[in-house]
Each structure stands twice: as C-alpha cells, then as structure tokens.
Specification:
This protein is mainly α. The protein contains nine helices and two strands. It starts with a helix and ends with a helix.
C-alpha cells in the first residue's frame, strides 16, 4: 500500500504553521517556514514537475521545525555554522522520515526522504541535486535581498559564487530568470563575471 501523500504533506505543514517567525506576503502574515516550504514546492514544480512523492516531501520538509534550534545556540563562527547546519539536517531528516512512516510510507521511502534532506550524494544523485537547486533558487528569490544588506560586498559575492557552484545548469537557467532589485542583480553579475 502506498503512503498517504496528502496526510504527510498536511503533517509537515501543520508543523511549519507553528513557526513563531512571521513574514508578510501580499499583505497576509504567515509563519515564515510555511511560506518557505510553499516556495520550495513552487520552485520544484519549475525545476522538476514530475518529481516523485519522496522528493516532493523532502523539499517540503527541508527546513522542518528549523526555528526550534536557533543559529545563536552554536558558536557564531564558520565552524559553529557548519555544526548547526549538520545537526539540523540530521534532525530534520529523522523527523520527516517519521512523518512518512506515520503516513503509511515504507521504511525505504522514509529513508529516501531522509537521505534527500541530508543532501546525500549531492552532484551524483539527480534528486538530491534538484533539492539543492530548489534551495538555492529560494535563497536567491526570497532571502538574498535582505541577506545582502547584512554583509559586505566581498562576502556577498563569495556567497553568490558558492551558491552558483552548488547548482546544476537547469538551476542556473531558472536563477537567471528571477526578478531582482537592481542592486541584487548587480551583485549576481559581479559574482558570475569573476
């Protein structure tokens, strides 16, 4: 018996709806992680409209309950950032896998969702690469303009280069179609030129 996709999606979104961090989109306030998850799903439709349910669930749960582990609970340096991200991926993968099992998915499917969230075999696994592309696209579309205001230009250009390097050609094509402010577009152009 296949898993119940709508049940799993509903459980993921119920958790996202608990995020105390809010964002306003079209004059409507909503929990940020719910907005982020919906944006991830939207970009997945552009990147791979025939994606299997396991990838769709991994995309939707990529930041599952992320707000519960604050960035400042780890040292505010590069090592602390990487430790925080590593812990989050492991935790989010475990929680999403449990939702899959609770929704009738097989252990194999639950394990696949978890592996995708952990981004295993990036660059070798097309579905993992798709998840990475989608995360980069959401960063560029939804987070970049606010992010660039908090950091100096050299750091931003470096981050853009790293982001670009993580993406596939299909991801690049979609990224170049994102509408950005003049300043953001200028930074992207500078990052890609060097």
């Amino acid at each position: 018996m296949p898993g119940d996709y709508q049940k799993a999606l509903g459980l993921i979104d119920e958790a996202h709806a608990l995020d105390p961090n809010k964002t306003t989109i079209n004059e409507e306030e909503k929990p940020y992680e719910l907005h982020y998850a919906q944006k991830m799903s939207s970009y997945l439709e552009k990147r791979n409209p025939s994606a299997p349910e396991t990838l769709r669930l991994a995309i939707r749960a990529q930041h599952f309950r992320r707000w519960e582990i604050r960035r400042d609970s780890y040292p505010m340096n590069k090592q602390g950032y990487h430790a925080w991200r590593t812990y989050l991926k492991k935790r989010q993968a475990e929680q999403a896998a449990q939702i899959c099992l609770d929704s009738g998915y097989s252990q194999e499917d639950a394990d696949r969702v978890a592996a995708l969230i952990r981004k295993e075999n990036l660059k070798k696994d097309e579905e993992t690469q798709t998840l990475e592309d989608v995360a980069c696209l959401v960063f560029l579309d939804d987070q970049f303009e606010a992010f660039e205001k908090e950091h100096d230009e050299d750091k931003i250009v470096g981050i853009l280069r790293k982001t670009w390097g993580k993406m596939s050609e299909k991801g690049h094509e979609l990224a170049l179609g994102i509408s950005m402010s003049e300043r953001a577009a200028e930074l992207v152009k500078k990052a890609l030129a060097e």
